User: What shape does this take?
Amino acid sequence: MEETETAWLELARQGDEEAFARIVEKYQRPVFSLCFRMLGVAEAAEDAAQETFLRAYKNLRRYDPRRSFATWLLSIAAHYCIDRLRRKRLVTVSVDDDAYAWRPPVDPALSPEASLIRSQQQERVRELLEALPAKDRAAVVLYYWHDCSYQEIAETLSLSVSAVKSRLFRARRALAEAWQTQAVGVSKQIHSEGIRYETPAV
Amino acid sequence: MKHLPFEDWLLLGESALTPSQHRALAEHLQECLQCQMLQMGLGEVEDLFRESGLHDPAPGFVERWQARAQQDRLVRQQWRYRWQVGIMLIVILNAVVGLAVFLGGQLFSVFDSWVDVVALAVYRIFALFFALGEMRGLFAVIWRILGGLVPPERWALLFLALGLGSLLWVGWLAHLIKLPRRVGS
Assistant: This one.
């Protein structure tokens, strides 16, 4: 951990909100990304990321400085998102509900074409991740997007290393199957559109 | 065809395999379409994940967090205040009930019947009114003496000064309440 970060954490531990705001600035990207991959909706991810930092700030005294701060923070985010997904499963949510509508974050630097491709790519990622149970999803996100080791994932999700390996194993199988299902769906769509386009010419 | 160890090897990741397992897997993949599909699907999923990268939140995330933290602090302060008031009310209520039970017990041990208690209560109320009337007379005398000593315009000035002082005090209190509370190092 950097010296400046240690100093900010020490100040924040004494109640300095400005010091913790610097921590928020530094970790906003990984925390938001984790929440975004877990929940699939930018607005929900923003709310979850904000809540993660608030919980971290309030419980800063419980943080053990011998552990990685990033792992501790991601652990709070992952557990919050897992709880939220479990609660959401209990509540009937309409697909048309605006709060849960799929809206990827817009990058103004991208051209419209690139933006469309990126949006489709994000949609595919979301569909693939949605096929996984909440904890498996968290393990996959931490492994692929945050480059966490099995040990770090185990610490983050309060699991044993063997449980993490088994969850990732199961998740990879589910992802490969979901990918194949997606591919079949796309090829069927292309085939049907091809027939539709061919019809006027016949 | 036997897929089981090969599927497991594919899903575990090729980095976990020994060189001989690698060779066996490569040979199996050349002739097994199902395992080829699994390997391809997994490879494409992993490529997609790598390409999609991390996301930044909307600009102003830190400011929004600060506003949320402040809001959270206010809500917690209100809760703490409500708890304190609630606990205080419970303590007062308990004290009143305890005192009533204690005094009631004492009272009934002195008197033989309800009639005696009511008669004493009526007598005490009349005595209280009488004492208040006497005090009113006493204050009227003091007021007349003071009125003779200090002219009316000075009284007006005195009350005006007191009023202004009270206003200033209330204003200062309001200012103190609005000041942000921080626990700094």
Q: What stands out?
A: The two ends of chain B are 70 Å apart (CA to CA). Residues 4-52 of chain B form one domain.
